[in-house]
Amino acid sequence: MQFVSTRKNKEPISFSQAISRCICPDGGYYVPAYSENLRQWIYYLNDKTSFSSIAGSLTTALMKEEFSPIICETIATKAFNFSPEFRQIDDSLYKLSLYTGPTGSHKDFGVSFLLAYLEYTLLLKRERATVVAISDGEIGSCLAHAMQGKKQLTALILYSKGTLRGFKEEDCVWNGGNIYPVEVNGSMEDCSHMVRELFSRQDIVEKYNLTLANTFNIGRLLPQTFFYTYAFSRLKDKVFGDIFYALAPGNYSNLVAGLYAWKFSLPVNGFITECTPALTVDTGGKAQILDSLIPLEQRQPADPGNPSNLERLEEIFNTHPAMLRGLVFPVPVSEEERTAACKELFMKYGILANKETSGSYAAAKKRTESFSSPDNTVVLVSRDHPAYSRDEIRHVCGEAPTVPDFLQELLIPITPQKTMDCTVDAVLSVLQELE
């Protein structure tokens, strides 16, 4: 598979190049250069196929130009010793839970795949790389766990002030490990600005072989397409009508990944999500991206410190304008509707849901077409463990989700051993220390 920029540069590059370069020189995002027909792979799967096997099959199909099936299967097997949970909760309603990884976050899947891929390819080339991430706790936990056992990688995790948690001291560089967690004297926004400036310095990126762990990196985003293929493998022999996915917008990465799965020939009839200031509906009720009113050449370079993936979504809309307007369904959801949905999920199904999952359910219910036929199926995508929103859920439902032991450990604050100012020079000092 090959990739091109969302902006001027349409010269295709390989998957490995897109991951290692990470930053498009023209200020855009890397996206698939063409659609892949994976129908023969997708229809071969069934509800007995494990998630790691699905990931291995799709990795093989997408990377056949670069790696053998054995290598692709090895990467997927090393990445995924965990799986999403998929279950039926009503006649036409299913739930796809993505918080079943080691840190209770949907990010576990993308981070684990990215690091397994990097580790294997760096080993082949006998090179090393440094993965950079900004964290207020969650992504740092994902990265710290996924880094265990990696010999070719070091992770520089920049925590905003007061948010250090989610790792073990023995995994730190100064104790012989491979992560360097440091508290930055600044907010998440300050850290984002610092990383943006850091990755604008191509000389630094090349010297220290830097890459990103967020969804700016296509290697973090692409494995999220596996979610939808996994769900379909569980549905294909059970349902025969339309399939809709209801999901939170977030930074649009899961929505973009779902649309890539559709471009790879996955059967799907629509993605339902809450409206946002950027993704809304026009006067005719069709999906509209307001940023599209500003030409790409008049925009600032994409922000590697805080990716939105909206530009990737635009690229899909521009390529398939008519089709996409009949495939993406943004729905306005009020706070009252979200709260009512949270209560209904608890009272009717015993599900304690955070506001993102509740909002997705409310959007699906308002999009009456999704439930208008008894043959239609809605898959409710739940991203993160409800225990992360324990107080919020207790306030609405009167009951709070149990915090599992592994999550309790991840939530314990850690006293920083390393701190730094929020400047590129301070980052450079750390990178020199890691040489």
TrEMBL record:
Tryptophan synthase beta chain-like PALP domain span: 92-382
Keywords: Pyridoxal phosphate
InterPro entries in alphabetical order: Thr_synth_N, Thr_synth_N_sf, Threonine_Synthase, TrpB-like_PALP, TrpB-like_PALP_sf
Origin superkingdom: Bacteria
Keyword Nucleotide-binding: no
Ranges where the Threonine synthase N-terminal domain occurs: 2-73
Short name of any one Pfam family annotated for the protein: Thr_synth_N
Cofactor: pyridoxal 5'-phosphate
PANTHER family named among the record's database cross-references: THREONINE SYNTHASE FAMILY MEMBER, THREONINE SYNTHASE-LIKE 2
Protein name from the UniProt record: Pyridoxal-phosphate dependent enzyme
Lineage, top ranks: Bacteria, Pseudomonadati, Spirochaetota, Spirochaetia, Spirochaetales
